Amino acid sequence: MVKIYQRYVILLYLKNFFIIFCSLEFFYAGVDFITNINKLPDSANLQLLYILFNFMSAVNYTLPLSIIFAMIVSKFSMIRSNELISMYAVGITKNALILPIFFAAIILTFAYIALNFTTFSYAYEYKSNILKYNQVVSTSSDLFLKYEGKYVYFGELNPLKQEVTKVKIFDIKDNELREIISAQKGLFLNNAWVLENVEVIKKPIVDNHTNAKIESVKLPSLRVLEKFRPKIIENAHLGQSTLSIPDAVDAIIFFGDQGINIDSIKTNLYLIIFFPFFAPFIVVIFYYYLPLSVRFFNLALMSFIFVFIALAGWGVLFVLGKFASSGVITAEISILLPIVILGLFALILYRKNR
Prior knowledge:
The structure is a single chain. By secondary structure, the chain is of the alpha+beta class. It has two domains: 12-115 and 274-352, no CATH class; 131-266, no CATH class. 58% of the residues lie in helices and 18% in strands. It contains eleven helices and six strands. It has helices spanning 4-36, 44-80, 83-89, 94-115, 123-133, 230-238, 245-257, 263-273, 278-289, 299-325, 331-352, and strands spanning 140-147, 150-158, 163-173, 176-189, 192-202, 215-224. Helix 1 packs across helix 4, helix 2 (44-80) packs across helix 5 (123-133) and helix 2 packs across helix 10 (299-325). The mean pLDDT is 82.
């Protein structure tokens, strides 16, 4: 059962969080819109979509900072009104006060991670496409890839519609061309590509003149290339690393099997799953170092210092993530290790104040 003081602290924290979060979102989206207004297409629909995708892509930056800033604002508000010292005076411990805020921050973090299981992850890509191509999704043309020993050519790929045209699949075994599959159109359905109006040309293994005949078979449809997702294809073609969590996992498995470097994709996955926990851990650490009373500290100066430290810490981790993406440092050292250290330090402070 939630106690009265816990309910009060959670509501105060969430109120400050949503105020700060909305303010940062509107600031980010507003500045970006004003900066690129001359580059936007004349279509009102595309302009509205650009603003929407701008808000969505800004969440990557504004959410963790809002989680931290909301705790700082909430605690300074309680300090000014003497609520914090009053709660301590009636026997409420430091740990009892930080737990509701920490759990609220963790829930917000998990909600953000859950969003990255969806197309939310591609908001920045869609926003950039509107600026560059005057459309939400850009099509890729003339793709030539290798998949499970087969060489695959797509004349054009539309990742949003999950559709390809002018498909050719060359099946090579023992350095010999054995089969060519051709189709004018294909759709990605049920985790595989379903080609329509297919022609299969089979080259026989020639032992003598009696079996030296090339066979041609026409099929209404054919299911091929299992688990070869459109975003994996686009990633391989364009060298992008920003993927949703399911697509990133599939890409790591796919490119790992092909012997292709997966550092940038693995870094992106770590940034989505582990980097957001930076905010809840910083919330706990800051909480134990914030002052208890307004009498002996300049709250304006203290708030500036903690905000600066939060921004600096976020910036350092962001730069380390960029280093990991470029292969300078491994993702385990640049992303996982700092988050683990922050988590352990927060746990030590919690246990120390029991």
